[in-house]
Amino acid sequence: MGHKEDLLEGAKRCLLEKGYGRTTARDIVAASGTNLASIGYHYGSKDALLQQAFLAVTEEWGEAVGPAGGGEEKRELPADPYQRFHAVWEQVIAAAAASRPVWKLQTEIVTRLDDDEKLREAIKEPQREGRLGMAEGFLGIDPEADPEKARVAGLLCQALATGVMIQWMVDPDTAPTADDLTAGLKVLMGEQ
């Protein structure tokens, strides 16, 4: 890897270990084995590097908990919508403990958005893309074939993921399981 990639990897480690607000340029340099000038040369600023690192961390989370589960082969989703929903959320919840640093970072980022317009702007489009990725990866909806269906399904997936993971962070003993979520969905649909 070159300095640019080393910086990104070091910044990702720092974000997950220290958080956004407590990560310094010197922390990134120490974690990456590079130098301070490299940050400006490759990313323009520490904040720009941290924004890219944050986006990379969240994208990697999505790839790890999606149907491929971090592997090369895409896992086949069940055709039945309730079974598919259950299978996806079973995988997301199974990764809850390992995902804790990612969601801790996500929560910190959200609390910073009112005071950091550049950060807000940097994550708007990737958030929209992430929704479509969730619709495709979690539910098998092709965003190009049916953009509106993918958009609304992605909104729901993103809302569920955020809520479920926060519940797991607060109280894993009473946080929802895939069975709970599927049963709740059936109740909402009037099928139970």
Write structural notes for this entry.
α1 crosses α4 and α4 packs parallel to α7 (117-139). By secondary structure, the chain is mainly alpha-helical. It has helices at 3-18, 25-32, 36-43, 46-65, 81-94, 96-112, 117-139, 147-170, 178-188. The termini are far apart.
The largest sheet, given as strand count, sense and whether it forms a barrel, is: none
Individual helix count: 9
SS class = mainly alpha
**What pattern of helices and strands is seen along the backbone?**
HHHHHHHHH
Percentage of residues in helical conformation: over 70%
Percent range for β-strand residues = under 5%
Uncertain residue segments? none
> What's the overall geometry?
elongated
Provide keyphrases for this structure:
192 residues; mainly alpha; 9 helices
Task: Outline the secondary-structure elements.
Elements: H1 3-18, H2 25-32, H3 36-43, H4 46-65, H5 81-94, H6 96-112, H7 117-139, H8 147-170, H9 178-188
Helix pairs in contact: 1-2, 1-4, 4-6, 4-7, 5-9, 6-8, 7-8
Pfam family, one: TetR_N
Domain HTH tetR-type: 1-61
Organism: Streptomyces zaomyceticus
